[in-house]
Fold:
Amino acid sequence: MLFDALFPFLFVGTPTTAPLNYTICDAYLTLENKTHCGPNGYALHYGYPICRKFIDNEYEFTPAGKAFLDCVRPCLADFVSVNITAANVTNCTTITNMAYSSHVPCYDKCKFCSVVIANLMPFATTFQVTDFLSEIAIHQVLQVAFKCLLDPLSFFGGILSGIAI
Structure:
């Protein structure tokens, strides 16, 4: 039991045979259809593919990691729908900046820091190194990392919470 708690990423589920539901990701396609920022724009380059990868890889996450995904996907998609698409923002750079500005608050709201350690492998298989090569992405990662370091009980509690004494 202690081993399972310390290394939950070694005990992943199996992919489902049921059809996956990507409906939550439609927010990014709606944004692209309205703005036409193309393959290098936020919707097609980052938002939509990452949303789908999280759904594809959900079985790899711990129960707490899955709860994070259930929280963060609608948080990010709703932000795009309400604050960008419905607000008629059409400048592609502004869209990227606005969309990225939602990541830290959504990750914080959904308790990323408490699940990241136990879900390192699923996060690593979901993201690619190239997802973090832009200045804005690096800045976002540093903001999230700083928030996690400021809350060590949450950060390390993600591991310790599963330990049975």
User: Anything to note?
Assistant: Residues 80 and 99 are 6 Å apart (CA to CA). The radius of gyration is 16 Å. Residues 1-6, 161-165 have pLDDT under 50 and may be disordered.
